[in-house]
Specification:
By secondary structure, the protein is α/β, with parallel strands linked by helices. It is 47% helix and 13% strand. It binds pyridoxal-5'-phosphate.
C-alpha cells in the first residue's frame, strides 16, 4: 500500500494513526441505533434464529449419542454463566476505577466437543449440511429421531461427501470433530499460527490437516480453491456464512433463559453489557445479533480485538469493511490470541451489524496475558489469551460517563448493571500449554 493512500486514510479517519501506532483505543460507534432501526440491515430475523434453534433441538438426540459429554444436558451444547467477584475487585484496582454492577463470565471456553465459541456456529453449520443431504436422499424426515444418524448406515452415506474449512485453530477443531464423527471426509486448512496440539487432536479424530506457512486469509483461500474443484465438497466459509452466524445467534435466547432462571434482570433500569472477542466477526456478530433479539435496546454489545489485529474496528470505523485489511496500514497481524489473528473482517458481519454494536476497543497481547494470570489467581479459571480480550471492556465503558449519559445511563442504572465477559476459548488447552501461557504472564509483565 503506498504512503499517500495511508496518509489520506489518516486525514479522513484520525484514529487510523492510533491503530498504526498499536495504541490500545476505545471507539464508541456513532452509527449505533435502536434494534428497530438497525434490524432491517441485518438481512436475517427472529424467525431465522428460531429455525436454527429447532434444528439444534432435532439434532440433540444425535449429539447426546455421539458425544457422551453432552448427555447430561440432553444433547444441548451450552455453557454456564458464573460470577467472578474476586476478579472484579482485582480489576477495580488494576484500572483505578470502581465498576458499578456485577461482573459475570460466560464460559463458552468450556463448551463440550471443542472447548470454544466455535462449538456453536461451526457445529451448527455441519449439522445443517448433513440434514440437507440426508433429507434430499430420502434417508431422513424432519419428524424422525435424529439419534438414528449415529449409525454405520449414515456414516457410510456421509463418507461419500467432503467438507473443507480454513482456520486458525478453533473453527477447524469444531468442524473437524463433528464432521469426522458424522462420517464425512473432512479437510482443515490451518494457518501458520495454529497450535500443534490442535492439529494433533484433529488427526487423532480422523481429520485431514493441511498446513500453511501463511496466515488465516491464505489458508481460507487455498481451502476454498481446492473445494471449488470438487462438487462433492462443501466449503465452510467463515467470512460470509449466514448459517454459521445463525448457529451463534441461538446463544441470545438461551442466555435470556439462563438469566431468568437466576433472577438476573435486564431492563431500562438494569442494563446489560456484553464484551465479545472478535476475529473475523461471525462468532461475536452472531451472538450479538441473538442478544439484540433477546434483550432489545437494553443490551449493549462491545467488540474486543488485539492491537495487532483490529480488523473489525478498522472496517466499521472507516466504513470500508472487507475492502481494507490491517496489513494495508503496515500492521503485522501477529498476536498470541488464537482466533483473533485476522487481518480482514467479514464484510457480511460488519455491514449487517454496524448499527447494532455500541463500541469497539483494542488491547495489547501483554494486557491479555496479564488478565489471563489474574483470572487464574483470583478465580482459578484458566482460559486461552483471546478469551481474555473482553475482560478489559467494562472499565473502558465505565470510564466514558459522557457516552453513558447519552444513553440515559447514570450512576443509579450502572450500579444495577450486568457486565458479561464472553470467554470464548481455553477449556481444552493441555496443561503443559496452559503452563506456558501462565509463564508468559510474568514475562509480559
Ligand atoms: C474464533 C474465535 C473468536 C472470534 O470469533 P470470530 O468469528 O472469528 O470473530 C474469539 N475467541 C476465540 C477463542 C475464537 O476461537
Amino acid at each position: 500500500m503506498d504512503e499517500s493512500q495511508i496518509q489520506q486514510w489518516i486525514t479522513q479517519f484520525p484514529l487510523v494513526q492510533d491503530l498504526i501506532d498499536l495504541k490500545p483505543i476505545t471507539w464508541f460507534n456513532p452509527r449505533a441505533t435502536t434494534l428497530q432501526a438497525g434490524l432491517p440491515y441485518v438481512g436475517l430475523a427472529a424467525d431465522d434464529v428460531a429455525d436454527a434453534e429447532q434444528r439444534l433441538a432435532r439434532f440433540a438426540p444425535y449429539l447426546s449419542a455421539a458425544f457422551p459429554e453432552t448427555r447430561a444436558a440432553n444433547g444441548v451444547i451450552e455453557s454456564e454463566v458464573v460470577a467472578i467477584p474476586a476478579m472484579q475487585t482485582a480489576l477495580d484496582q488494576r484500572y483505578g476505577l470502581k465498576l458499578g454492577g456485577h461482573l459475570l463470565l460466560k464460559k463458552d471456553s468450556h463448551l463440550p466437543i471443542s472447548g470454544s465459541i466455535k462449538a456453536r456456529g461451526g457445529i451448527y453449520e455441519v449439522l445443517a449440511h448433513a440434514e440437507k443431504l440426508a433429507l434430499a436422499a430420502g434417508l431422513l424426515q424432519l419428524t424422525d429421531d435424529y439419534g438414528k444418524l449415529f449409525s454405520e448406515e449414515f456414516r457410510q452415506f456421509f463418507s461419500r461427501y467432503r467438507i473443507a474449512v480454513g482456520s486458525t485453530g478453533n473453527l477447524g477443531m469444531s468442524i473437524g470433530i463433528i464432521s469426522a464423527r458424522l462420517g464425512f471426509s473432512v479437510s482443515v486448512h490451518m494457518s501458520a499460527d495454529a497450535r500443534e496440539w490442535k492439529k494433533q487432536k484433529l488427526r487423532d479424530n480422523g481429520v485431514n490437516v493441511v498446513e500453511y506457512e501463511q496466515d488465516y486469509g491464505v489458508a481460507v483461500e487455498q481451502g476454498r480453491l481446492q473445494a471449488a474443484g470438487d462438487p462433492s465438497c462443501f466449503f465452510i466459509d467463515d467470512e460470509n456464512s449466514q448459517t454459521l452466524f445463525l448457529g451463534y445467534a441461538v446463544a441470545g435466547g438461551r442466555l435470556k433463559r439462563q438469566f431468568a432462571e437466576r433472577g438476573i434482570r435486564v431492563d431500562a433500569q438494569h442494563p446489560l453489557f456484553v464484551y465479545l472477542p472478535c476475529g473475523v466477526g461471525g462468532g461475536p456478530g452472531g451472538v450479538a445479533f441473538g442478544l439484540k433479539l433477546a434483550f432489545g435496546d437494553h443490551v449493549h454489545c462491545i467488540f474486543a480485538e488485539p492491537t495487532h489485529s483490529p480488523c473489525m474496528l478498522l472496517g466499521v470505523y472507516t466504513g470500508l469493511h472487507d475492502r481494507i485489511a490491517v496489513q494495508d496500514l503496515g500492521i503485522d497481524n501477529q498476536t498470541a490470541a488464537d482466533g483473533l489473528a485476522v487481518g480482514r473482517a467479514s464484510g457480511f458481519v460488519g455491514r449487517a451489524m454496524e448499527r447494532l454494536l455500541s463500541a469497539f476497543y483494542t488491547l495489547s497481547d501483554r494486557e491479555m496475558f496479564a488478565l489471563l494470570g489474574l483470572l487464574d489467581s483470583q478465580e482459578h479459571i484458566q482460559l486461552e489469551p483471546s478469551a481474555l480480550a473482553g475482560m478489559a471492556g467494562p472499565w473502558r465503558v465505565a470510564a466514558n460517563s459522557e457516552w453513558l449519559a447519552g444513553r440515559g445511563l447514570d450512576e443509579r442504572q450502572m450500579n444495577q448493571a450486568t457486565h458479561l465477559v464472553w470467554a470464548t476459548g481455553g477449556g481444552m488447552v493441555p496443561a503443559a500449554e496452559m503452563a506456558k501461557y501462565l509463564a508468559n504472564v510474568h514475562e509480559a509483565g
